[in-house]
Amino acid sequence: MAGAVISREEVHEALSHLYDNDLLAQSSLVDRFAGIAALQPIERRADRLRALFLEAIEVLRPSRRRGFGSPESRHYDVLCLRYVENMTVARMTEELRLSRRQIHRDLYEAEARLAEVLSSRTEAGQAGSTGRPPDALTDELMALHSQPDLVELVALVNATISLLQPLAQRYGVRLSLQASADTAYAVADPALLKQLLVQCAGYAIQANPSGEVILLVNDKGPSPSVAVRFSAPTSFAQLAGLKDAQRVAQSQGIPCEVHREPSGITQVTLLPHGVQARSVLVVEDNLGAVELYRRYLTPAGWQVHSVSDPLLALATAISRQPDVIILDIMMPRMDGWSVLQSLAASPETAAIPVIICSVVEDIQLGKALGSRAYLRKPVSRGELLAALNQCLAPAPNSKG
Question: CB-hemisphere CA count at 13 Å for 56?
């Protein structure tokens, strides 16, 4: 198998069984990826291969946001609709306003491109066949699987300071810790959160030779925070390396705020999740979409509950009291607009923010009925996490 290239036919076969664990685990592609074939039970093997496919599909997303169904986005859109959303070709012709022949042609081309991406992921595959400009950080983030755990922030900061002392000494920088309490806890992947802190503090040290870098821990307020504060005599544009740290943080659902004062004092603040787990209720009849949301959100510390029957949405929301609700519009038995009305009319659920996530696009109607955000499928992990973070903020003034 050394040097073998994955074919479009193999990709098509596996995609056709993307949510059938038994058939996916028996796919001919399993043996192409080191470690997957040995995984037991088969559900675990199927989960890993499915995750690999979803990661590869994300690679085809245009680097710049394009309109749904646009030529630049077409390959990504047809794969998401057909295989992730499990949409029929007939329905796709309506959504994309294309002929069946064109849909099949686009799917064929998209599967071929996906085969190239997966070939580059195999043990013997050659890098660089992704069909998009090379971006090492994007590739790293696509392969990243975090493991959130309870993190003691003061201890984490002390470990970071210890690690960075040699660099600080080289630049003549004094490192110090300021904490609002002796202990403060958050939920995050400890290694990734430490890496983010090291990255931000490392930039601060190099931007502020012979100065001081303060690492702050604050457990006051709705969520804990870790910050790096320093004076940056260089222009703010020269701190562009912090953008990579922000991208890594966003991939984990951790807001990363950079604030610069007129005096030159700069503060980079990381806002990991509080200890109390946040929950989201997904009202969606498409199990493929539910699984995609679960994969997006679980590593970011969200508990994902779902209900496939819209008639049960209100009762489930009342009993579970989620922090946020993600709602589809096109569902059998009861449409999402009616579900949104019932949630807004019930005193027990009226305060729960609702994100509409649908192929149907009517943002103004969604706002009129009380939705806090409106996302058009297919949605990216970053867009979904950003909308959830927005919903955790205080509700906007309806009189504005």
Answer: 26
Q: Tell me if 1 is assigned to some domain.
A: no
β-partners of residue 187 are: 150, 273
Is-cis flag, bond preceding 41, omega within 30? yes
177 and 89, same structural domain?
A: no
How far, in Å, CA of 251 to CA of 334, rounded? 34
Q: Which two tokens stand for residue 57?
A: 């599909």
Residue 37 has pLDDT above 50, yes or no: yes
pLDDT by residue (tens digit) across 278-297? 789 999 988 878 888 887 88
The pLDDT tens digits of the residues spanning 247-262 come to 777 767 788 888 888 8
> What are residue 40's phi and psi, to 5 degrees?
-135, 145
Q: C-alpha angle with apex 34: 28 to 37, nearest 5 degrees?
A: 50
Q: Residue 397 falls within a domain, yes or no?
A: no
Question: Do 135 and 13 fall within a single domain?
Answer: yes
**Whether residue 380 sits in one domain with residue 358:** yes
- Residue carrying structure tokens 């949510």: 19
Name, of 42-56, 57-71, 308-322, the range with top average pLDDT.
308-322
Residue 219: how many CB atoms within 10 A of its CB? Answer: 19
Coil, strand, or helix at residue 136? helix
Q: What is the pTM of this model?
A: 0.44
Instruction: Tell which residue, 348, 358, 278, has the closest CA to residue 310.
Output: 358
255: tokens are 């807001």
Name 82's Cβ contacts closer than 8 Å, sequence gap at least 6: 15, 89, 92, 107
167 in a structural domain: yes
Domain assignment present for residue 282? The answer is yes
Residues 21, 138, single domain; the answer is yes
Considering 142, 175, 193, which residue would you say is the last residue of a domain?
142
> What is the chain's Cα-based Rg?
23
Let me know whether 302 and 353 are in one domain.
yes
Which domain, by its residues, includes 37?
8-142
Give tens-digit pLDDT for 150-181: 788 999 999 999 999 999 999 999 999 999 88
